[in-house]
Amino acid sequence: MGRMEHLLALRLLGTAIRGLPICLKQEKFSGSMKSLTMLILDGIAIRELPLSVELLTGLVLNLKDWQYLESLPSTINGLKLLKILNLSGCSKLENVLDNLGKVESLEELNISGTTIGQLPTFIYLVKNL
After folding, report:
1. Does the keyword Signal apply (predicted)?
2. Topology of 9-124 in CATH?
3. Per-residue pLDDT averaged across 88-105, rounded?
4. Is the separation of the CB atoms in 43 and 72 below 8 Å?
5. pLDDT for 27-72, tens place per residue?
6. Which end of the chain is more exposed for a tag (fewer CB within 10 A), N or C?
7. Beta strands at 108-110 and 9-11: parallel, antiparallel or unpaired
8. Which residues pair with 119 in a beta bridge?
9. Given pLDDT bands bounded at 50, 70 and 90, which one contains residue 1?
């Protein structure tokens, strides 16, 4: 997937993909995908997000129905302009990191259909949520 500097949205929902494209795994991919604002990865069979996800600057992140997702990378707090995080249907996800409280731009968090047993404490700290 060479340089995609003008790509606004990447949708991989419902595919049989078992690994993210190399451009999403690279340590410094933000230059090649600097315009990406929407990453839709519904229902794919991937177990974890790469740590490099923090390099994206503004984003709607949709991870709906990731059956194998057990945790989010600690670097997710680097998504300073993250507006929407959809984790609905991530049935193995047991908790959301409290460091998401550093994502001040978060406006919507969907944790329905997860195994999260209590509201994360950061919910009370994020002013736009």
Report:
1. yes
2. 3.80.10
3. 83
4. no
5. 555 556 667 788 888 887 777 777 667 767 668 888 899 888 888 8
6. N
7. unpaired
8. none
9. very low
For 26-32, which contacts have Cβ atoms below 8 Å and span 24 or more sequence positions?
A: 26/52, 27/52, 28/52, 28/55, 29/55, 30/55, 30/56, 30/57, 31/5, 32/2, 32/3, 32/4, 32/5
State yes or no: pLDDT of 15 exceeds 70: yes
- Specify the amino acid at residue 81: L
What b/e sequence results for 41-70 when a residue is b if at least 16 CB atoms lie within 10 Å of its CB, and e otherwise?
bbebebeebbebbbbbbebbbbbbbbeebe
In the chain, domain spans: 9-124
Residue 74 identity: S
- Output the furthest CA–CA distance in the chain (Å, rounded): 42
CA distance 57 to 49: 16
